[in-house]
Amino acid sequence: MQAAAPSVLTVEDDPTVRADLRLALVDAGFDVVAEADDDTEAVELAREHRPDVIVLGAGTPDHRLAERGAPIVSLPERFSSPDVVDAVIGALATHREHEIQDTRTASLRSIESLVGELSFATPEPSELEQASWERGHVWRRVDEGDER
User: Distance between the two ends of the chain, CA-based, in angstroms?
Assistant: First the structure.
């Protein structure tokens, strides 16, 4: 079973640049789910489509889109297709790493809380987490390919 392509919302007021962005992203395997002319339209489209990443054209403010939780790539005035694709891939990877780390932190906090409730000697929470991981028992595995 093949994973779905990451979804992208583009925000650019110039129709030619918007078309170039779409072409570059689709050619790279992304799913451009929506395109907006300005940040007001982008907020509505982001709520509707919940994209994995948002790509903003030069000069587009990102303060209203930051609440969406998706990584935001702001493009410079001049850009090349490979630069756009690399920036989107990098933003998605960084966002994914943060999600994995946040999940692990929450897991360790839960283990620490449980260990704190026990009245007998127990291993450190990180040792319990490692033992659980080695047995294949985790509360939420983010991705089958992840090591943590």
Answer: 22
